[in-house]
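Structure first, sequence second, as always.
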């Protein structure tokens, strides 16, 4: 429900008087600061709120939520701004949490509070709350598996602790569907030693191995057994893109191998011996791992990898480039995770429902013209249905960190899980 102008100004006046000196309220829509704070990763569905509240402390969040609830002012929280849903129109305000960047490490308990996430600019908290898939998921579990506790501001503005011993049902829900159960003002996560990477210097082997699209069948034949190999210490991306300088369609393999360069090269020999156009894989430190992967769009997951559909995927990709010239920088990526971690939680232990997913389809759709939107979406859907053609309905997965358009049964799989989530949401 939209708030009246009067209650909005009462809200802003009272808030200014109570929040911390480090916090800020922006309401001049023409100011550079307001425009900068409004920026998101995508302009799809962008709305202009009446105000943006930049909270600086957990207490600012509590005060803001309490007052907004009392005066019936709608709002959305926003952290890194990478989703399509941290936006609201003139009826409400954005509660901006991007200033929450402090990280503290507890060496004894081996935990970090408000730790860094996977993508280099993605909000840590929402990524973890939505499940959190990363190159390290196979080694250390999904990001949500590593949540130890949270300080949560509930819809009534109370600040509560959520952990396995305090509000355990909420803790279950937080780990996979947490964006729907309140505002997380602080998150404590399990830390892992660099030694899990299995290299003496804490590096991973990564880079690109590039082939022309015409070689799709032989490349996929060499790659398929590696993707199917449950014991391979690694993960990777298979990307279809048309990169500079030639802008012709290529297959780009981005491996992430947990081991030394010589072991990795031996493992990837079936691909390397095909004679790629270009290969620049080398050991890199973990903090540099995401540098070449700044843009992603997960859509659907598959429990198995089917190499035979790839020539058709390439055809669809080329159709997209023909029909939408502004989408030339697009890439279609497929991320696999081969390593089965010993610390994997059971399917029912958290609200995250995609532990069986082997390969995630990700569409890195870059386009500038709003007219291209329908065509981009249609082709993405066509690629997905190609991938899903032999799947049973219950195997169809959609990653909740990426989509709120796909049916709930694909995002939170299993009737029991959905039922429990609905019950918790009502409480
Ligand atoms: C380039 C790119 C790369 C990505 N890579 C990955 C990846 O590798 N793995 C992965 O799992 N996902 C990935 N994602 C998806 C990403 O994790 C989700 O979109 C995530 O929700 C984005 O968080 P954000 O803070 O940047 O976005 P925001 O839009 O700020 O927030 C996302 C949602 O969380 C809510 N929210 C924000 N802060 C809080 C809070 N403190 N408490 C409760 N709710 C809150 C917002 O209202 C919104 O609904 C990627 C997305 C992009 C665009």
């Amino acid at each position: 429900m939209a708030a009246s102008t009067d209650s909005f100004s009462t809200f802003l006046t009272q808030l200014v008087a109570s929040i911390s000196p480090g916090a800020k309220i922006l309401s001049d829509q023409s100011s550079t600061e307001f425009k900068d704070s409004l920026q998101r990763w995508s302009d799809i569905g962008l709305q202009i709120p009446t105000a943006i509240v930049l909270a600086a402390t957990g207490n600012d969040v509590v005060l803001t939520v309490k007052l907004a609830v009392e005066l019936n002012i709608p709002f959305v929280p926003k952290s890194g701004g990478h989703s399509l849903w941290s936006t609201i129109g003139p009826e409400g305000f954005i509660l901006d949490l991007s200033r929450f960047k402090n990280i503290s490490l507890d060496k004894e308990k081996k935990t970090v509070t408000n730790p860094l996430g996977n993508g280099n600019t993605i909000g840590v908290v929402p990524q973890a709350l939505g499940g959190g898939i990363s190159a390290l998921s196979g080694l250390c579990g999904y990001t949500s598996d590593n949540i130890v506790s949270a300080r949560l501001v509930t819809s009534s503005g109370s600040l509560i602790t959520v952990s396995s011993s305090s509000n355990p049902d909420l803790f279950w829900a937080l780990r996979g569907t947490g964006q729907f159960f309140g505002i997380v003002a602080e998150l404590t996560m399990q830390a892992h030693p660099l030694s899990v990477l299995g290299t003496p210097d804490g590096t991973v082997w990564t880079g690109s191995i590039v082939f022309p699209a015409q070689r799709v069948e032989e490349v996929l034949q060499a790659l398929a057994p590696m993707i199917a190999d449950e014991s391979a210490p690694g993960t990777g991306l298979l990307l279809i893109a048309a990169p500079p300088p030639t802008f012709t369609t290529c297959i780009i393999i981005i491996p992430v191998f947990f081991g030394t360069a010589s072991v990795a090269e031996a493992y990837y020999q079936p691909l390397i011996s095909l004679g790629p156009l270009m290969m620049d894989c080398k050991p890199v430190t973990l903090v540099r791992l995401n540098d070449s992967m700044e843009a992603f769009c997960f859509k659907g997951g598959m429990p198995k990898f089917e190499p035979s559909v790839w020539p058709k995927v390439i055809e669809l990709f080329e159709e997209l480039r023909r029909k939408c010239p502004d989408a030339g920088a697009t890439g279609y990526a497929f991320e696999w995770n081969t390593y089965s971690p010993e610390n994997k939680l059971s399917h029912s232990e958290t609200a995250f429902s995609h532990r069986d997913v082997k390969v995630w389809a990700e569409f890195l759709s870059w386009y500038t013209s709003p007219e291209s939107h329908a065509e981009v979406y249609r082709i993405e859907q066509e690629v997905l249905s190609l991938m899903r053609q032999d799947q049973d309905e219950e195997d169809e997965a959609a990653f909740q960190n990426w989509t709120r358009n796909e049916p709930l049964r694909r995002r939170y799989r299993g009737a029991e899980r959905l039922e429990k989530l609905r019950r918790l949401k009502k409480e």
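Margin note: The chain has three domains: 5-96, 104-195+416-426, 199-406.
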